[in-house]
Amino acid sequence: MPMVTGVTRERVSVGVAGATGYAGQELVRLLARHPHVRLVAAMASSAGSPQRPLPALARVWDDDVVPLDLARLSSETEAVFLALPEDASADVVPALLERGRRVFDLSGAYRLRDNEQRTHWYPKASTLPDGSVYGLTETARPALPSARLVACPGCYPTPALLALQPLRAAGLVRGDTVIDAKSGISGAGKTPTERTHFSECHGSVSAYGVFAHRHGAEIEQELGCRVTFVPHLVPLDRGILETIYVGLAPHADATAIAAAYERAYGAAPFVRLTGDALPTIRHVAGTNFCDIGWKVDEAGGRLVLVACIDNLLKGAAGQAVQNFNVAFGFDERAGLWA
Amino acid sequence: MPMVTGVTRERVSVGVAGATGYAGQELVRLLARHPHVRLVAAMASSAGSPQRPLPALARVWDDDVVPLDLARLSSETEAVFLALPEDASADVVPALLERGRRVFDLSGAYRLRDNEQRTHWYPKASTLPDGSVYGLTETARPALPSARLVACPGCYPTPALLALQPLRAAGLVRGDTVIDAKSGISGAGKTPTERTHFSECHGSVSAYGVFAHRHGAEIEQELGCRVTFVPHLVPLDRGILETIYVGLAPHADATAIAAAYERAYGAAPFVRLTGDALPTIRHVAGTNFCDIGWKVDEAGGRLVLVACIDNLLKGAAGQAVQNFNVAFGFDERAGLWA
Amino acid sequence: MPMVTGVTRERVSVGVAGATGYAGQELVRLLARHPHVRLVAAMASSAGSPQRPLPALARVWDDDVVPLDLARLSSETEAVFLALPEDASADVVPALLERGRRVFDLSGAYRLRDNEQRTHWYPKASTLPDGSVYGLTETARPALPSARLVACPGCYPTPALLALQPLRAAGLVRGDTVIDAKSGISGAGKTPTERTHFSECHGSVSAYGVFAHRHGAEIEQELGCRVTFVPHLVPLDRGILETIYVGLAPHADATAIAAAYERAYGAAPFVRLTGDALPTIRHVAGTNFCDIGWKVDEAGGRLVLVACIDNLLKGAAGQAVQNFNVAFGFDERAGLWA
Amino acid sequence: MPMVTGVTRERVSVGVAGATGYAGQELVRLLARHPHVRLVAAMASSAGSPQRPLPALARVWDDDVVPLDLARLSSETEAVFLALPEDASADVVPALLERGRRVFDLSGAYRLRDNEQRTHWYPKASTLPDGSVYGLTETARPALPSARLVACPGCYPTPALLALQPLRAAGLVRGDTVIDAKSGISGAGKTPTERTHFSECHGSVSAYGVFAHRHGAEIEQELGCRVTFVPHLVPLDRGILETIYVGLAPHADATAIAAAYERAYGAAPFVRLTGDALPTIRHVAGTNFCDIGWKVDEAGGRLVLVACIDNLLKGAAGQAVQNFNVAFGFDERAGLWA
User: Fold this and answer.
1) pLDDT exceeds cutoff 90 at A239
2) Are B285 and B303 in contact (CB under 8 A)?
3) What is the value of pTM for the model shown?
4) What is the distance of C-alpha B329 from the center of its chain?
């Protein structure tokens, strides 16, 4: 794959499949105004879907949302963003790759490399395609330009991995890892259910998926260790904040922690280090930033990390576009900055 | 119907049909601890419904919710509270009345007296039963002891009527009446829909049912004049606040307004007059109160009324129990006060 | 004032005063990434203010917020955006104009042209400067290129005027005008008060300022008629939705209403007409759009308009930037679109 | 202290000091309608405080809130409830005890028995009074009838201790204990601050007090082991949900866990065990219940507990009244049930 730059080529033709869900709408919003993108079509999640307008995107993307059309994606686009249910993604990805499209998949279908794990959680994703990259942009940068399929990370793994990987790589933490995640309700998708009914969520907090959430498997794959991961729904729309409890390695201290983060993210445009001023969802909602703060108890050998993102941007559509930018050689911030 | 009192008889046997909805659960919560009630059964909305537990009511009402059973309601209860969909109510009410039960109906089925109006909005409610009373407690008190069917008012009409009736009766207002209502989402019921999906409601406000809401017909029936009524969903769970715009009659002034309200509600246990300190939902949520405040522009001939209630209590289950208390001769506050 | 274009000149040097409030932060966020702006300084609201960082804007604007410095604004900028308290604005505006700066004032100080009205609501704004324009962009476009001072409209007047002016201009409405406004809490500013304390607002709605809100005077000035305007706080952060009640003129009908709006806003980049699919805050939050929908009761001679905006964007910082774009000859959408 | 019962004596004369805060208002609301209480006075937090009405309590408690008056509390009441700032409590408690009043203190002043710990967190509480009891009702029952001072537990310790104590007593858990707490904003009190400003909290979650919250010391005192406790503010008004991570002791399993809880709380009127159907805030808000659920990973040796309460009831005013009921020999549910 020859590197292309924003200078040498103006716009890449792209398509979006699954444009009516929350992440899909964010993709359309971002791509319709991306300086290096020509958005060819916003498609529904299936061939039979009736066309639906997206009133929230009037004046931004006024075209119809058309039924899913693999032939058209293959013939008219160079890159395809998929915001489909995982089973649909598992179906569509091989076909698109075969026809030479580069695919940015927001579903979990091809995130897990171990076949047993993957088919346990995503039964239809039987074979991991060649040229797959797990697309946590900050660590995937070298691999993205040649990637054929970018499996964009889940919303919960994104802040957990960004917070933990630099410390684990530097050998600064040890012992059990507890990840207590608080997520806005948009993470549960656009389909009305009892769990996401306003009156059930408002004024409430609930834990779910304890010891049984596929994002736990994804985090464990990338970290290479066991984690205890408990997601919660909190009464807000967009954003995830994770509080992470780990032990401090014997030689580790606050200075080493800060240095490890600075090394990892000093030049990263979308990771902001807040030090011991802990971050809040409010400052990342509506942005592609991941904010990370931490508190060190040197005497007690404990460390608490707090990381947060907008689940639909850095946790979904934003990170996919960030991956696209790196993959195609554009400024990593293109279309995400303003 | 001989008057009975809290002294002479201890407990009335009652049943609830439609116990799993939001208003139904409130009924069970109130009646299970009502000092003059023996709650015989909490029933689902239909005969075929599977039994469901009500986890929110553990330790308050631990019995199963049983399928709807008219025979049992007729043989084991004296009074029945219905929190059913309007069509189900329209079916069930005549059967229960025929068997001699006193019925407190929370649905709209039998609120409209005009046959054309009623069958327009509630097609299944073809015949208005004898002994029906429109149960806005504060005005229905004299009629309740002999009522067979109490059609409890809708959530939107309740504050509008409590605020407007004393002024209209005293001839203090004139001209157009605009009622702008803001309702919490629980008013839309327990069934998940796109409209009540958390992410669609959070951070948003929307108007609906403009010129086409059956509660407008109900308000117009009781006031005897045209109103322009627009309901809105606001992002909270429980509560309605209505802002009402009317013209001041030539001779009317702030003193006369206050006097009319004081006459109407000075002795009403559940109407609180806040004068020109306008009321807020926060102070009525979780209570059976209706708070009413007002601002008078004497020079401009204008009047703004603000009235609010908890839609599930004074707007539904609470007012039904209040009606029951008056109908059976108990203290109006029994079971509603603590 | 010679017209300048995005082609002939690249960037205008601008300063922001009052950068720490909610509207001020939005200005910094927008201007720091505006393609035709060089943001020289983000200043506090007063000379003595200590410098404060803006953690929410890390990576967007990392400079300190410096104390207010009129000399520097005069010497280093061409245009100044003021997000100051009204009294501070009343002080600062004449000084900046005298030194030749073009001023975009977000406060109310110089919105009212009538001296008596203006000094009633804004006592310090004794003299209306020459070259002042009331900056509702959609109607002010012709006047903006030569404006010295642009008094940007209040958050409440913006949707009311955009919804009502085309209909009044076309003679399609008559009779009383009632404007019932529901505003998110950010409209009350950043200073903690009992009214804006989370626990007082959550789950509640409250009316305030009845017959006594200066935005009522502003709306009446622009419409040239009396309005009954009642603002409410609703439990959300950003956004205003206004429900407007007017009478239909004898010859007016749904077709004429739609045509009047289409004429007024068919080419306006930031007004979206939703027809009888009424708009909601959710679709405008985070954008500079004003969405307008309407319902016509031809038989009853009534009209209900619903208009909504993001109060910090189209109701404050966004409209100020939009005015700047028109004033300096840039694309009206520059810096506001992505 | 002779046991008294609801049969032999009708009403205990009580006073409330600190009646205008959120917990204080709940006390007034509960005590004004308590069947065995005569509420003598609702007092402010200091002698100089101006009298303020409590509009939310109209028709429930219509008396003025009077300035704090120790003499009157001593002469006219038998029991006093204190909802004062901790320093004020530290001052007032010894004086009231000396004059023979029984005191139910909602502040933290006298919760910590270790002098060093107590004076570290509550410097004014220099001496722990004789006859003090840490009033977690479920474990304090035997001690309450003879208690002079009941130090009612903090809102955060209450669910943590109720969830952990039975398991620790049975030797079913081991290893580190992590308590991740999510609290509604009312827990931060009634004084407006930047942290509790609506726009700062809405749509956000934030951690605070990491390794430095006095409730951590309180939990450690009662459990006798180190805990890692991190509180968070979540955007709701009332309620706390705690997710607790512990290791499973070698012999422990799901059956043993359930049995330990059943033994501890089978007869407790205000603890509800939800098993592996995890509890949510929604079901406890507005009640005095503590709901506890759990998930066991037997193979992995891990246990996740979830416990939740209404912070102003079981976490403050409700538990104080529950303690009062036990202390005076009334039904534990009196005044809390309906």
Assistant:
1) yes
2) no
3) 0.96
4) 20
